[in-house]
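haha ok so turns out i had the wrong file open the whole time. this is the CORRECT one, sorry everyone. sequence first:
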Amino acid sequence: MTVHDKDTEILETRETTKKDYQQTKLCSIQKDIDMNDELKDRIKQLENELKDQRYTDRNTIYELENCVADLQKNILLQQISIVILDRTIRRNLTSP
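then structure:
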């Protein structure tokens, strides 16, 4: 093998190595782009789930507030009934 052949082989090997490196780098960049797209999709999905959860939580709070208001109304009505019953009993006991 001549010196010229050896130099040509080294240059070809260098060129092949350079092309392989560039191809690997491009593949890596493409994988990063794909992963970023997947992450963006996942973030969007999580944002939508969070919005849905907030909506559900607001509805739950609204329903609980209505239940509390109904219970307070029932307690007030029971207290009124107790007062009326107590007055009726006292009136019946004090009447001749």
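DSSP finds one helix and no strands in the chain.
again sry for the mixup
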